[in-house]
């Protein structure tokens, strides 16, 4: 009887120790992954208080520039512009006219414009799909244009990696 109790206690102790080792191993992996992501993630932040968002960039983008332009939305079945709004391009510091690099384009829609676009009341560009929502705040929707990298310019892979980390934060 006493030996049976000792065996049960020993078995329970082994299970507890084993679970502790598993939990410790998982936490080490999570911490290493989080640390690696933070290193590869942004150190530089572009902050736009006019529209209420920030965008995190890796250190390699130090010295970036901002280009402000407009997007245009056309009526279905025609070329008449029925909507328009701002698009902000975050430009890599190594971009030159002789060697252009992939910009990070951020389209800005009012909530009403975004709703109209989703209802198919207008379209943007020739792509059969619309822009992809990145984030929103109480006034604006921030979106990535469809086929923004269709020409595969230098740096498009880096921009895709940056975007995978969800760098845009609305406020």
What's the arrangement of secondary structure elements?
Layout: H1 2-40, E1 44-48, E2 53-57, E3 65-74, E4 81-91, E5 104-110, H2 111-118, E6 132-136, E7 140-144, H3 156-164, E8 168-170
Antiparallel strand pairs: 1-2, 2-8, 3-4, 4-5, 5-7, 6-7
Q: Strand share of the residues?
A: 25-35%
- Tally of alpha and pi helices: 3
Instruction: Report the span from N to C terminus.
Output: 66 Å
Number of strands: 8
Shape: elongated
Mean pLDDT: 87
Radius of gyration: 25 Å
* Biggest sheet record: 5 strands, antiparallel
SS-derived structural category: alpha+beta
Approximate helicity band:
25-40%
Run of helices and strands: HEEEEEHEEHE
Strand order of the largest sheet: 3-4-5-7-6
Which blocks of ≥5 consecutive residues have pLDDT under 50?
none
Please characterize this protein's 3D structure:
The protein is α+β, with helices and mostly antiparallel strands and 171 residues long. Helix content is 33%, strand content 30%. It has a five-stranded antiparallel sheet. Strands 1-2-8 form a three-stranded antiparallel sheet, with no helix packed on it. A hairpin with a 4-residue loop joins strand 1 and strand 2 (53-57).
What labels describe this entry?
171 residues; alpha+beta; 5-stranded antiparallel β-sheet; 3-stranded antiparallel β-sheet; 3 helices; elongated
Summarize the structure.
The protein has 171 residues and is an alpha+beta fold. Helix content is 33%, strand content 30%.
């Amino acid at each position: 009887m006493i030996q049976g109790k000792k065996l049960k206690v020993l078995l329970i102790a082994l299970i507890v120790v084993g679970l502790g080792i598993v939990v410790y191993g998982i936490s080490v992996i999570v911490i290493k992954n989080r640390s690696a992501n933070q290193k590869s993630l942004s150190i530089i932040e572009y902050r736009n208080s006019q529209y209420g968002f920030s965008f995190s960039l890796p250190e390699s983008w130090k010295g970036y520039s901002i280009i402000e332009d407009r997007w245009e939305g056309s009526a279905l079945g025609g070329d008449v512009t029925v909507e328009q709004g701002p698009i902000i391009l975050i430009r890599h510091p190594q971009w030159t006219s002789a060697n252009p690099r992939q910009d990070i384009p951020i389209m800005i829609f009012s909530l009403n414009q975004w709703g109209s676009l989703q209802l198919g009341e207008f379209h943007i560009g020739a792509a059969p799909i619309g822009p992809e929502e990145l984030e929103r705040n109480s006034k604006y929707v921030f979106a990535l244009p469809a086929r923004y990298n269709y020409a595969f310019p230098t740096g498009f892979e880096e921009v895709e990696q940056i975007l995978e980390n969800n760098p845009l934060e609305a406020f």
